[in-house]
Design a protein that fits this description.
By secondary structure, this protein is α+β, with helices and mostly antiparallel strands. The protein contains 3 helices and 2 strands; from the N terminus they run βαβαα. The protein has helices at residues 20-27, 45-48, 50-62, and strands spanning 4-8, 35-39. The chain is flat, with a radius of gyration of 13 Å.
Length: 65
């Protein structure tokens, strides 16, 4: 099943060289349409980046038509 993740931009990198974006990328399925969308902001991205998120969701859904 395709998955669309939203997260804040890559933060601290741990000792293994991973951050929040690379962690989410490991959670994706092998479905090529799955992706991670990093956005500038804090944890509550839907408060400040709702317009961009809405556009990304529309593109994601349209890609299956």
């Amino acid at each position: 099943m395709p998955v669309l993740f939203f997260t804040k931009e890559a933060g601290k990198t741990n000792a293994d060289g991973k951050n929040n974006v690379t962690f989410l990328e490991t959670q994706l399925t092998t479905e090529p349409a799955s992706r991670v969308v990093p956005l500038d902001g804090h944890h509550y991205l839907h408060w400040t980046r709702s317009v961009e998120m809405s556009r990304e969701v529309d593109r994601f859904v349209e890609s299956f038509r």
